[in-house]
Amino acid sequence: MEKKGPFTCKELKSMTPGTQVWGKFLILEKNQRRSKDGREIINLKIGDASDEIDVVVWDNCSITGELENGTLIGLLGDMGNYNNRAQVTARRIKVLDEDITPYIKKPDIDIDSLIIEFREMMAAISDPYIKALLEKIFTEETREEFFKSTAAKKVHHNYPGGLLEHTISVTRLCRDAAVNYPMVNQDLLLAGALLHDIGKMDEYEMKVVADYTVEGKLVGHIILGVERINTAINDIRRESGEFPVKLELMIKHMILSHHGSLEFGSPVIPLFPEAFLLHMMDNLDAKMFVFCNKVNDEDGDEHFTNYDNFFGQQFFKYRYTLDEEETGCL
Amino acid sequence: MEKKGPFTCKELKSMTPGTQVWGKFLILEKNQRRSKDGREIINLKIGDASDEIDVVVWDNCSITGELENGTLIGLLGDMGNYNNRAQVTARRIKVLDEDITPYIKKPDIDIDSLIIEFREMMAAISDPYIKALLEKIFTEETREEFFKSTAAKKVHHNYPGGLLEHTISVTRLCRDAAVNYPMVNQDLLLAGALLHDIGKMDEYEMKVVADYTVEGKLVGHIILGVERINTAINDIRRESGEFPVKLELMIKHMILSHHGSLEFGSPVIPLFPEAFLLHMMDNLDAKMFVFCNKVNDEDGDEHFTNYDNFFGQQFFKYRYTLDEEETGCL
Amino acid sequence: MEKKGPFTCKELKSMTPGTQVWGKFLILEKNQRRSKDGREIINLKIGDASDEIDVVVWDNCSITGELENGTLIGLLGDMGNYNNRAQVTARRIKVLDEDITPYIKKPDIDIDSLIIEFREMMAAISDPYIKALLEKIFTEETREEFFKSTAAKKVHHNYPGGLLEHTISVTRLCRDAAVNYPMVNQDLLLAGALLHDIGKMDEYEMKVVADYTVEGKLVGHIILGVERINTAINDIRRESGEFPVKLELMIKHMILSHHGSLEFGSPVIPLFPEAFLLHMMDNLDAKMFVFCNKVNDEDGDEHFTNYDNFFGQQFFKYRYTLDEEETGCL
Amino acid sequence: MEKKGPFTCKELKSMTPGTQVWGKFLILEKNQRRSKDGREIINLKIGDASDEIDVVVWDNCSITGELENGTLIGLLGDMGNYNNRAQVTARRIKVLDEDITPYIKKPDIDIDSLIIEFREMMAAISDPYIKALLEKIFTEETREEFFKSTAAKKVHHNYPGGLLEHTISVTRLCRDAAVNYPMVNQDLLLAGALLHDIGKMDEYEMKVVADYTVEGKLVGHIILGVERINTAINDIRRESGEFPVKLELMIKHMILSHHGSLEFGSPVIPLFPEAFLLHMMDNLDAKMFVFCNKVNDEDGDEHFTNYDNFFGQQFFKYRYTLDEEETGCL
Amino acid sequence: MEKKGPFTCKELKSMTPGTQVWGKFLILEKNQRRSKDGREIINLKIGDASDEIDVVVWDNCSITGELENGTLIGLLGDMGNYNNRAQVTARRIKVLDEDITPYIKKPDIDIDSLIIEFREMMAAISDPYIKALLEKIFTEETREEFFKSTAAKKVHHNYPGGLLEHTISVTRLCRDAAVNYPMVNQDLLLAGALLHDIGKMDEYEMKVVADYTVEGKLVGHIILGVERINTAINDIRRESGEFPVKLELMIKHMILSHHGSLEFGSPVIPLFPEAFLLHMMDNLDAKMFVFCNKVNDEDGDEHFTNYDNFFGQQFFKYRYTLDEEETGCL
Amino acid sequence: MEKKGPFTCKELKSMTPGTQVWGKFLILEKNQRRSKDGREIINLKIGDASDEIDVVVWDNCSITGELENGTLIGLLGDMGNYNNRAQVTARRIKVLDEDITPYIKKPDIDIDSLIIEFREMMAAISDPYIKALLEKIFTEETREEFFKSTAAKKVHHNYPGGLLEHTISVTRLCRDAAVNYPMVNQDLLLAGALLHDIGKMDEYEMKVVADYTVEGKLVGHIILGVERINTAINDIRRESGEFPVKLELMIKHMILSHHGSLEFGSPVIPLFPEAFLLHMMDNLDAKMFVFCNKVNDEDGDEHFTNYDNFFGQQFFKYRYTLDEEETGCL
Known about the structure:
The structure is a homohexamer of 330-residue chains. With 330 residues, chain A is an alpha+beta fold.
């Protein structure tokens, strides 16, 4: 352990309890309480681009500035362990007035290359009505916000850029799979894929961590997405006078049905090939995100993660590769 | 059997096989086929305001005019019975050029009194925003169409005026039940009740019998209803500049959640008291319609109807009343 | 915070950690344990007519008398907070020998007015058999106990008088809704509503808090209710010789089917209109109790309660009223 | 085909279409209708102790006497086949005035030996309270009726004596299995087993075929059984003054919980070992009845029966025995 | 209708009732029965590479040869219609002794190009253990049988070559999607995809139509597939002494889990990324086959197919394309 | 409390907090963490043949030797209580080098008598093929391992010898129940019963406590059992050339279907009587194990255990016996 810091959250998690550590982190959650023997305690969840970790702040910690969600801090403390989870006991905290961007979680993939791919996908559409709709929705202003949105509060792609990353991935999967089914209308499919989660821009507020908006909970991103499409088509009709009615219904149907079944929140189920393909690929990409991340889980034993209550299963972490030597019994 | 005709469908159903019958009826469904021995057969389902019945037309029947769905006919034939269901064998059919209105199924309750009650309910709302929204949606033109709409293709209130009848009933139930829960906002509740099935105007086409529209199947009446509310609120905001955002979300939420759970097609579940009350009363009224009609079912035995596959149960037809004499064993 | 006490539980919950507090409360639950460093700790749940709160008693607390469930105590302590829930750290506790009645949770509505309404409902029944049955069951002695019973251990109407409150509410809802369905036999419906939860008198023991009896768990209130009806009808038949058999079966059926489906513990499902209406109104009243209480929940954020595991949802706490100013964006 | 008749139903089913046949049978169901070309048709289901078969009666059939459910007839006709099911076309039918007993379906096992076994089981109980309860319920009169009752309308043990056969089998299974679990109270278990379906005496009316009674459908055999136990215990208490309360609750619980889960109509689930064991053995015996009968099904192919909608599966009919020669591939 | 024949099944289905028709077809199913008036009737289902159709054979039809499943016949008859389905009434049938190959249903895609693609996929695998396993399983002899196998009895890819077509399609989908998830081991994934339904070779017997084998029903294709892998790995280990144990378990796991959940027959659920991806793509390809075929369904109306009981939905048949003119309302 | 030790785990659980205790125990689980005030803490779960208990080890405890899972220790400490569960605070721990066998949990029944019964069951089989298969599988070596295996990780029979105990019990239950169903092939049934959980030998690793193997989780004991049967039948065929194919399929089917339904992990459901009987008895024995143990649960109140999340129910602990005095009200 030559390196003396600063450390990232990911590095902290693998350090020996007792080690002194320091670094710069964002406050993601803050809770205050009093210990059984009457001392003031603050529990923080802090994070950076690499990971998240818990911090406990006792009343003997020196604090400079106001601790609030979304604040960037410099932290000095000791690595510890509480209920088998890594935890830092803070000694000194200082609120920093720096650009927080480098500390926010990001897609693995470079955002700029995703934006280029997004533009190429838009350009690949030849149907003039579909093209017009996408242009009307993805104005420069909307794009800017879209590229910074999250695809979820938890579970998958839950960081700025996550919505773009997920959208590009689903669109790619749809485009490539469609080659197997010549009947599929590629332009219609691409439109559905690019627009399927557009309502998530209204479902979440992106501060430092995503949170549901009131309309996100009362109305939901599926209907919010349809409302954006409604507005755009109304504008097109008002301006140029033309948008095919059945195309309108089919695109709305693809948004409405993309969760695949009523019990997962789609008020209608997919009724034509493009809608079904979109639903499957949305589901695939969200779950593959989880599967691929679980492989690196520190919890669990050598071979399996702990049981995950949300997914109702464990995950197998072992990766078979050729240089594997073992050929005997386990 | 003094009366020699014309007979209503309801009367036909209770007549002895072999009797000669006649009357005026609407054609509700028509299917043509060839019998095993090569003869042309036409199967009709006909109906009037009282009920529906099956007709078989052999190639020796004299037919004047073109038999089509929605056509009014004069029919002379013989009562028969096929697979234990009443059926008329046609001898003579003549297409009539008369007003079909008297032959279309109607609510049990007088439509005009329902319309008066509808107006009173509208008048009872004092919140200006809610009042404005309802006025904007229920224009004279829309009311005219609304009063003729159906609440379903099958199952319950499936005839012109059925949507009004169901809407009034649900609104009454909500209004009366709310007295038990002082916290409930009556204006909000009434708005939700009056608007909850407004999307059914777009879900069905009302010819002589209701049929789904393409948007009814691809989008569904729940979302279609929200779109009508969107349009109205946009108009209000454009014209007068004001409509509370949270009120908008709550009314949309009431429409979206009125089926009560995801598996019944609501993309969100009821999250506040008015939304939950509306859901329960909608469900109650639809099913009470069925329970009350089942009591008069001719099928089944003295005490129970046949098993109904849609509802997954039999119904008990016996009605206890005081003049009941029996006090011994069954 | 001029007022210096005594405080109610509800008041305690809104006080600043660190404040000294005092008041009179009932002990609802008591658990003893030893802390990690070997000190004796007692955890209490205390309550009064307003609410419930947790208390921690360390070994340095001065205690006079024996702490037991159902005991009334005078308590002096400091407000604190543990795992984000309000908690009192006790300094002095004294067991009091006073009437505990004022400290027991009650219906919001005045019990006496409920009793008057109960009598009116009984008086409104004109069918002599049904009247006789209700009189036989609701003897003076039974009424006295019935008026003090609870409708549940947790969840809804879980306090003395709760069974009466729930019964009156369901009966009112049934009576008012029945106006929409002329076929419904009002006397039969009222009988079912007044009797539907009568078995809960045997299902729970009402000490200070409700607890299940052995027959409550082995047999259940639905069957226990039918047994009370059996006994009453046997008595009527023995005394006067007459009670219609089908009426007996229909009333039993209404009790047995009022949970609406097998998976909710009804061995038969509702088969006639009165039974179905009763089931729906029972369900409505139980859940509206929860919805209306959740609006005042202190947990959660400004708009939504925390996720409730029992109901599988969050609740929207915001109440729209006319004096609402906001019309802009959220 | 030397034998010229009379034939049993079972024999008819294996005869070549076109053969002339005759025999004596009971009418189990009768339906009348008119054919498409106007001829009167009667469809009968007839049966005897061996099996059931369909009969079609055209208007050219000679009929002596009144054809009604439960009537014994002499029938002459021709074997045929309709929709792949064996069917007799009647030529001559004569109503007979003979004892119908030999023609009613019976258990495979001799009823008298079952009755002896029932008595031995009763005698094996040593607990005086349990013994008293069983004696009080199984009076001579009740036994007589019990020995003639059916265990079901369809599916399993659906014939006079079937209830006894099923009860004995379940009691035997319970008794033998209990040896593995020393903690089990054998007397309590036997009581539960002997009484578990006693309510079926009230659920069905046994004419020639079983039919539901009104209380069977409105109340159900589980509650009807508990009512018989109530009556008996009340009598015991009135006469001798003593019956342990917890024993009463446990026996009722065993009856109430013997379907094992709420969705199969038990209002409570088994909570102690004897109740659980009884539930499992009741389920086992009912389904083994079906499995063993399915092996002889004529429908389906060499190895498998047709798909059975009620059980949601096919059944494998092949029986492996030692003299099996095949050892190669299938 | 210049063309006078021979006609294909597909052509027959669109012809006017009454037209005389002829052609060569395979007998797929045969049932014999007697009509109500005593005449012998044979019902056939016949088919060719294009489609299937029903035939009714009355006793006045001239028949040369023995009618049996799988026989090729020349048929002359009249087009008719029974219960709204096209049906041929046979006049003359002659059993033919010709090669039946041209009359058997085939994949849309050319089998030879599929075989070439299969070889390329095999060649693309570089991991020596995985390559060895695939070579061991896909011997020349197995390939020959594999290329002629069906992927199902009904529902999807249910014809010779269907298993190959489905396998190639799933493998393609997996390979292309994996590009999005760099962590995925392509060789492992391809092995799983190529082998996932290998057990179907043992589950079905391919005569003219597929039928389940006894092991298909008692053991199932998932386990039968694992047994083929077991045999191959045992052979490899016996011959060369080496196969990595974890690789063995992972490949077996992919076969076992490819139905995705226990209720669809997988005894384990997918636990690592390759297994999950394979499951999703298998599901996608099977259902896209259905969606794409449904678009051409003759049943239903202009926009929607009839309700499909197996899939629990209707399908939208309209295909949006650019030359679509309509822009007004529906 | 005369006795001064050594104590068993069972004895510890009933001792007063504060008492000094000592004894010899196995370490079953070990977790290390740091307390909030920075002290090192070790949490142990220890056990012996009688029960299990928690131990907390503070940094002031004297420890001799290395604490590891499976180690036998001598422990001196004080009884305490944490979160209402008994817990020992360790003062002195010494690792012991003794035979651990006496401290491992065992079946209640003597293993040797189970082994004798196992041999008798094997000897009772007369069918030569079935006998040969059992002999081939249960070699001396396999038996030795089989007799030491566990039937589960948790829930039931989860200790060395548990698999034998469960297997014998299921086989006995099957054998005795089969007497009621003469059609059942006893040899086939016994083979299925003796082999049904044979795959559990591969599913678990038995160290001191059972743990899943990788193949246990990726493949599962049901398939692992079929693989053992495959191997044995292959050996038999190679050596003697003969084993009936259908018998092979039926035995595999019994193993595969013994969980009874797809959602419980059987890829096929029982299709013949022996398979169904085996499934029911396996289920019965596993659950009776739980029911009988729950009666002795210390948790819960006088009559009922606490709610068990795994089984979704409480259990009634009261055992009715004749010397019961109570006859009044509860």
